[in-house]
Specification:
This protein is α+β, with helices and mostly antiparallel strands. It contains six helices and eleven strands. Its cofactor is Zn(2+).
């Protein structure tokens, strides 16, 4: 599933491609993706004539700001956006097409069909699901060591499980939790409310650094992820533990291990993360 760095990269590339573009028509071939409104013809009708004025990211969600509406999109497992010429035939996995007046189209492609779209009157998107219950952004001024400590102090869940909770801290998924915990020298099964001050400081900094470096490298293309221009991310080439089970730790040479924590495949160095 695309995490914060991947969604941020898609946001940035789409901003270059469709900002100020006006929607001429909308074609939906998989209605189940449209969660609000529940009538795809109403979805289409509301969007025709709207202009893409801004694109933002909230956690793992893309937020398209239009003239009168806000479109909230979640890529789920394998969703991706791309801009194409009208003359290019869409493939069978393209399920939503935004036809633009410039004779281009923004296409949403999703092999597994898990992606979602919610359309709200502008200004109402933060008051309802899926955005209303999201936690703090890791790149915001609000995300301090003190706040992280307060979040973790309230739960005895395993550290990895607590960090994956999008209602507390957004954007972190399996890849970046594993990487941030390795950099902080913390084991994913440590109870969240047992961290000492120095451990909180390390974890806070490792979360920010890991995500920032990943954004700068265009995210991680582990399986199918590409940005809005069809380009792969490169952060996977610098991973310390994720997906490296059986390989030597880059710090100490110990073999990286894989386990299951909170139902998620988890990668650790048994020496660096005791």
């Amino acid at each position: 599933m695309p995490e914060l760095p991947e969604v941020e990269t898609v946001k940035r590339t789409l901003t270059e491609l469709i900002l100020n573009e006006k929607i001429k028509d909308v074609i939906v071939t998989w209605p189940k993706m449209i969660k609000k409104p529940d009538d795809t013809e109403e979805f289409r009708h509301r969007l025709i004539g709207q202009t893409f004025n801004n694109i933002k990211r909230r956690g793992k969600f893309l937020v398209f700001e239009l003239d009168e509406y806000t479109l909230v999109s979640h890529l789920r497992m394998e969703g991706r956006y791309g801009v194409f010429k009208l003359s290019e035939t869409p493939d069978k996995h393209t399920h939503v097409r935004f036809i633009l007046e410039s004779e281009k189209e923004l296409r949403y492609r999703d092999v597994r069909k898990f992606g979602t779209m919610h359309l709200f009157p502008k200004g109402e998107e933060e008051n309802s699901l899926p955005l209303s219950q999201l936690g703090v952004e890791p790149f915001s001024d609000e995300f301090t060591v003190e706040l992280l400590g307060n979040i973790l102090a309230k739960t005895n869940r395993k550290l990895k499980v607590a960090l994956l909770d999008q209602t507390k801290l957004v954007g972190l998924g399996n890849i970046y939790v594993d990487e941030a915990l390795f950099r902080a020298g913390l084991h994913p099964e440590k109870e969240a409310n047992t961290l000492e001050c120095k451990e909180l400081v390390r974890l806070h900094q490792s979360i920010i650094n890991t995500l920032q470096e990943a954004v700068e490298m265009g995210g991680s293309s582990i399986k199918t992820y590409v940005n809005g221009q069809g380009e792969m991310g490169m952060f996977q080439q610098t991973l310390f533990v994720y997906g490296r089970q059986g390989n030597a730790c880059k710090n100490c040479g110990t073999s990286i291990e894989k386990s299951v924590v909170g139902g998620r495949g988890t990668h650790t160095c048994p020496e660096c993360q005791k």
